[in-house]
Design a protein that fits this description.
It is a single chain. This protein has one domain: Rossmann fold (3-Layer(aba) Sandwich). Helices cover 38% and strands 17% of the residues. The protein is built from 6 helices and 6 strands. It has a 6-stranded mixed beta sheet with strand order 2-3-1-4-5-6, sandwiched between helices. The termini are far apart. The mean pLDDT is 87. The structure holds guanosine-5'-triphosphate (GTP) and magnesium ion. The site of guanosine-5'-triphosphate has 23 residues, from helix 1. Guanosine-5'-triphosphate binds next to helix 1.
Length: 201
């Protein structure tokens, strides 16, 4: 339920994607801790939103939210609805949500559930970056092509799909670069001084 979401003034960056795509592994990879977010061989492990406090006490403190995976066949319809409801409400209502890393498997085109998720992001104007996971499962020569195919499928620019491998620790710089830009914009917003100009006279 949405009331299970945290109430905090900190900016939030969320990690979304289908069950087993590698969300928890991605978070552990980013924070260099193999046990922080629970990973599992069994899809559907992350059931509620798990929040991690990053850069504690620094100027760019934020919460990283590990969202529950969707598209797992072996759960009841009632459970699926509950998850969809939580995800949809979180994306629509969380005022402090500044960015979503939307994870898809590099080996496959986005699923129907991925497209539903993507539409939630789009509909709610949530800024996002698409992250193509498990890049180590492909020969290096195919990585760019697969990213391009995913970008074409979702009708976004190829720059908006970043390949990563939590296993081989690839892609961190590009992800950090995105995070830094997003947090910088949150903590140091450009003030529109048009109005102050008028009152100056
Ligand atoms: N080869 C490879 N395997 C990965 C990578 N990232 C995750 N995995 C594996 O994929 C499986 C699922 O990873 P998780 O990180 O638990 O996936 P999740 O998206 O958090 O799953 P839910 O919490 O169930 O939604 C695990 O067996 C991981 O070891 C990667 O970059 N490369
Ligand atoms: Mg998980």
């Amino acid at each position: 339920m949405y009331k299970d979401c945290i109430v905090s003034d900190l900016p939030q960056i969320a990690v979304a994607g289908k069950s087993n795509v590698g969300k928890s592994s991605f978070i552990n990879f980013l924070v260099n801790d193999s046990k922080l977010a629970r990973t599992s061989k069994l899809p559907g492990r992350t059931r509620l939103i798990n929040y991690f406090l990053i850069n504690e006490n620094s100027a760019e403190e934020f919460l990283l939210a590990d969202l529950p995976g969707y598209g797992f066949a072996k759960v009841s319809d009632a459970e699926k609805l509950k998850w969809a409801d939580l995800l949809e409400k979180y994306l629509a209502k969380e005022q402090k949500l500044v960015h979503v890393f939307f994870l898809v498997d590099i080996r496959h085109d986005p699923t129907r559930d991925d497209v539903t998720m993507y539409n939630y992001l789009f509909k709610n104007n949530v800024p996002y970056t698409i992250v193509a996971t498990k890049a180590d499962k492909l020969p290096k020569s195919q990585v760019k092509n697969r990213c391009r195919a995913i970008a074409n499928f979702l009708k976004v620019g190829a720059d908006n799909v970043i390949p990563v491998s939590a296993l081989e620790k690839r892609g961190k710089e590009q992800i950090f670069d995105r995070m830094e830009k997003v947090l910088n914009a949150f903590y140091n917003p450009i003030i529109d001084d048009d109005e102050t100009d008028e009152t100056d006279e």
